[in-house]
# Entry
Amino acid sequence: MLSFIAAGDPNRPLVVLLHGVCDAAIAWSDYIDYLSHDFRVVAVDMLGHGLSPRYADAQLRHPFESAYEAFEETVEYLEHVHGGRAIMIGHSMGGAIVTMLVRRRPDLCLGAVVEDPAWLNDEQRQRYVDNAPANAALLHDWASDPANAIRHNQTRRPNWPMEDHIGWAYGQNRCDPRLELTGVVSFAEDWHQVVSSIGVPLVVVSSDDPSDLVGVRGLEEVRAMGKPNLETVFIPGCEHGLRRTDIAAFNQAVTPILHRWAACESHVSGEI
# Structure
């Protein structure tokens, strides 16, 4: 079972949030506040992150699949207690895990929003592996000096809310470094095949910054699939962490979709 933060009225529709690699549930704090007026919000710490268990040696042989299995188990528990299916929102590696969940377990999902998910091509996948040692060293430095990590992030991302800088630094401090050393942040399958096989409503959000993993081209490729359950949202001028780069634009685009999906589900909810 993974660690999670829960907020909002338990009788409202359930939204489950999953962060990216080297982040944590608490990094969604401003979004939890925003959503909890209308939803029961649960932000989950991914395996090896936050207060969730660290990776066992055997789990590191297939780190993405291990993270997926732990998340699926946790969602099953949350929905058993809540009494209804959840809306999923995932970012980066969390977006890749959510993508796989809606493909394998559509019975658990009302719909999903994936914020620049880690849908990787071969070049991107290799780049993560090649950069893993340097990223792990940087993770160690930031974990050793959180104050410096916050200053660095404030300089790089001045438009982020202060609480998000703090949450981000906490995530760096609470990430299993052995995961970072694998360089694995996504599933091995071609993402086009995965996405085209999904029948659950799925919205992919991305932008046009060089750091974006899906980007303009990926959004075009999703639209070209011609599936009515697939929607795309383009928010210009945002880096990979695009929700925190342009909070207002993200909320304006995504919030009506969440309410539309929630209206399709009736609830007999318990306490989470």
About this structure: The chain has a mean pLDDT of 95.
